[in-house]
Amino acid sequence: MIKGILMKGGEEKFIKYSFYNFSGLKGQTKVSRKGLHFYSSRVTLVFSSPNKQFIDYFLMNLFEFEQVELGGLFLQPEAVELEEKVELGESLKFICISPLVILNSSFNDSSAKRFISPDTDAFSDLLYESTIGRMQAAEMFTDEQIVSFYKFQVVPDKSYLARLAAAQKKFARIYPVYDQDVKYEVRGYTFPFTLYAAKEVQEFVFHCGLGQFTHKGFGMLDVAHSNPNSRVLKYEFSYA
Question: Which residue intervals define the domain CRISPR associated protein Cas6 C-terminal in the entry (predicted)?
Fold first, then answer.
């Protein structure tokens, strides 16, 4: 749906833009054999990017539709709100509001489904490599800045993982992802963690997501112990 809205606007620089992130639809739901059923009269989509012009472009094209269809659900765009800026430091606890994917995938390759324990250096290293690669590609930082971002460590909330294990619940599942009409399967992780990294790195992953396939809705984060509803501002358009 999001890709279709970006293409509708016809601006090549935004159609190919990939430094954005979004959540699943938030609302009251129930899982059945036929899929996910929404019982809310309203649902919320969280959409994020460091590029204000890109967000304006997306919203302006979205609100030109009286109705959009998503997975059999008919939605009417109603309102947009801005979350107030969160103060970020070099140590911050995040929660995943969409699954975190750490391995890239390719055709006829099942390696992206491999489980890697979040408390290993390999887990952090893979996230570091993908994050630094994306920060370089974004052309928002100098080479000197990129080199200075060597501090990077993901530390999972071990008590949370222990509670899930005791209850025989999973924090890692296999998810489908589509690229150029090709379906891949990847492993996604959902758990709270503390990220130790430079402030600029924290801001980048907060706005652009963490891990692989972030522009396809994976790896969206929020700050733990915060209430987004209490930090809502009026959204002001600046795109023309």
Answer: 84-223
Segment 182-195, tens digit of pLDDT: 888 999 999 999 99
Reported in sequence order, the residue ranges of the chain that DSSP labels E, i.e. its strands, are 21-22, 29-32, 35-38, 47-48, 68-70, 73-75, 81-83, 91-96, 100-101, 152-156, 172-179, 182-189, 193-197, 221-223, 232-234
The answer to pTM > 0.85 is yes
> Which one of 3.30.70.20, 3.30.70.1890, 3.20.20.70, 3.30.365.10 gives the CATH number of domain 2-84+228-234?
3.30.70.1890
Torsion 204-207-211-213 (CA) sign: negative
Structure tokens at 163: 């509670």
* pLDDT band of 42, cuts 50, 70, 90: confident
